[in-house]
Design goal:
The complex is a heterodimer of chains A (418) and B (88). Chain A is α/β, with parallel strands linked by helices. Chain A has helices at 30-39, 74-78, 82-98, 119-132, 141-145, 149-158, 173-186, 204-212, 251-256, 285-298, 316-330, 341-344, 351-365; strands spanning 15-23, 45-46, 59-60, 108-113, 164-167, 192-199, 242-250, 263-272, 307-309, 336-338, 367-368, 384-385, 391-392, 398-404, 408-415. Chain A folds into two domains: 16-256, Thiolase/Chalcone synthase (Peroxisomal Thiolase, Chain A, domain 1); 266-415, Thiolase/Chalcone synthase (Peroxisomal Thiolase, Chain A, domain 1), CATH 3.40.47.10. Chain B has one domain: Non-ribosomal Peptide Synthetase Peptidyl Carrier Protein, Chain A, CATH 1.10.1200. The mean pLDDT of chain B is 93. Classes of the chains: A alpha/beta (418), B mainly alpha (88). At the A-B interface, helix 2 of A face helix 1 and helix 2 of B.
Chain lengths: 418, 88
């Protein structure tokens, strides 16, 4: 089949990845994060930020080493939700990693993935509304809870006046942010774009709500075993928090300034299942088409892809549908598949961005990290899941997937520098 | 609670919100021009005072209020009115 969105794009500007930054449960700098992923060490544990005693699920993957004071003065800290703080911190790290950009601020953009927005602040303020009345609601609630707060904060702190917006497509959005950021560079709307995502919703309402719909693992007695993508005993995802940002840069510009180039955003596919608000389309049809769109955009055949960085949430439905989709596109047991969520849990809006970072580090070091807790697939999941320990990888393009409630799909083709 | 006590609470809040040196927060100090606040800073200060005093401080009562001292006057009046209505 020829995807409907397919069109030649190679005459447009190429997009280099020249900087990366993360704030994750597995580490708040690239090397700690990567070492934890390669070790396959799960980060899930009892929830610390709030008292989880009354919650049905009492564990998550939290970022435990983040100090806002490193990035913000006290006034900025007070006026921003944790979700925006994590976003800017990851973006600032990515920028520092990219070296001296010497870019025109009007040619620098921000595309930030938004999940549930400033939910920590929103819940605190709703409590004040119900306990003290409307006059007790903070005047800062609106700018702290709005989903575009992360994009706005990054732009304001850096003085970047180019394109600046957020996207909201649930758990697919981290990859959408990178794809849409890359398009800004391809089409000539920007020279540099900080693309990424952030999430901070280890909160009572979010845990209760995701648990009520049966999306969360309920392994309260053994949190470290709870996130087990593509494993036969999986029972839901593990809530995570964190952020990841990448510096995307016009390829010619990046090479001209002698930048260290991690690789290229070579292809981007996005489509919609148009099927069900939470369940993937049967047989992973939408996800398969999405990967094909990304391959076509990159001008690559399935056989040229080295591995898949899966969405792999550890839910019953996602992993089954995604496995079927991978088989549809690449064939049975055709290439290694890994999911970072066994280690870091599901970072919702940040997932796609953090996993793109993991994909680039896999290409850098020639290692596919293992899928933590994956022991055994059902017989009908005909994919080759990397488990136990990492696997050596020849330099080859990677497909990184993100899929979201609402039927949103996004796939990236990320290639080694060449 | 008298005006001096309220002024003390206001000063604490202004120091916290504006990140200001304590000696600059005088009754004559203007929130925006002298203490480098913005349109939201005063609202943040009032939010802190609402919590500490457990009293509603309606934003409209502070229309035209520019200095720490005049804010203390308005808050003192609101606190006194509440005390009167509570005992009457």
């Amino acid at each position: 089949m020829r995807p409907a969105q397919m069109r030649p794009t190679r005459s447009l500007a190429r997009v280099a990845i020249t900087g990366m930054g993360v704030k994750t449960p597995a580490g708040s700098d690239l090397e700690t994060f990567w070492a934890t992923l390669v070790a396959g060490r799960p980060c899930a544990g009892p929830i610390k930020r709030i008292d989880p005693a009354a919650l049905p699920v009492r564990f998550a993957c939290e970022v435990t080493d983040f100090d806002p004071a490193v990035y913000f003065d006290s006034k900025e800290t007070r006026r921003t939700d944790r979700v925006a703080q994590l976003a800017f911190a990851a973006a600032a790290d990515a920028l520092a990693d990219a070296g001296d950009l010497a870019a025109d601020p009007a040619r620098c953009g921000v595309v930030a993935a938004a999940g549930v927005g400033g939910l920590i602040t929103q819940e605190e303020q709703e409590y004040k509304l119900f306990s003290g009345g409307p006059s007790r609601v903070s005047p800062m609630l609106v700018p702290m809870m709005m989903p575009n707060a992360s994009a706005a904060l990054v732009g304001m702190k850096l003085g970047w006046t180019g394109p600046n917006f957020c996207i909201a497509t649930a758990c697919a959005v981290g990859s959408h942010a990178i794809g849409e950021g890359a398009r800004l560079i391809r089409e000539g709307s920007a020279d540099v774009v900080l693309s990424g995502g952030s999430e901070a919703c280890v909160t009572p309402i979010a845990i209760a709500a995701f648990a009520r719909m049966g999306a969360l693992s309920s392994r309260n007695d053994s949190p470290e075993l709870a996130s087990r993508p593509f494993d036969v005993a999986r029972d839901g995802f593990v809530m995570g928090e964190g952020a990841g940002f990448l510096v995307l840069e016009d390829w010619e510009r990046a090479t001209a300034r002698g930048a260290r180039i991690y690789g290229e955003v070579a292809g981007y596919g996005r489509n919609s299942d148009a099927y069900h608000v939470t369940a993937p389309s049967p047989g992973g049809a939408g996800a398969a088409d999405c990967m094909r769109l990304a391959l076509a955009d990159a001008g690559l055949e399935p056989s040229e892809i080295g591995h898949v960085n899966a969405h792999g949430t550890s839910t019953e439905l996602n992993d089954a549908a995604e496995a079927e989709a991978v088989v549809k596109v690449f064939g049975e047991h055709a290439l290694p598949v890994t999911s970072a969520k066994g280690v870091i849990g599901h970072l919702i809006a940040a997932a796609g961005a953090v996993e793109a970072v993991a994909s680039m580090l896999a290409l850098r070091d020639g290692t596919v990290p293992p899928t933590a807790n994956h022991e055994r697939s059902e017989p009908d999941l005909a994919i080759d899941v990397v488990a136990g320990e990492g696997r050596p990888l020849a330099a080859a393009p990677v497909v990184s997937n993100s899929f979201g409630f609402g039927g949103h799909n996004a796939s990236l083709v990320l290639t080694p520098p060449a | 609670m008298d005006r001096d006590q309220i002024l003390e609470l206001l000063t604490d809040a202004a120091v916290e919100v504006m990140d200001a040196d304590r000696e600059t927060v005088t009754p004559e100090a203007r929130f925006v021009e002298d203490l480098k606040g913005d349109s939201l800073s005063v609202l943040e200060i009032l939010e802190i005072l609402q919590e500490k005093l457990d009293v509603d401080l309606p934003t409209e009562a502070f229309d035209g209020v520019a200095t720490v001292g005049s804010a203390a006057d308005v808050i003192t009046k609101i606190v006194a009115e509440r005390a009167r209505s509570a005992t009457g």
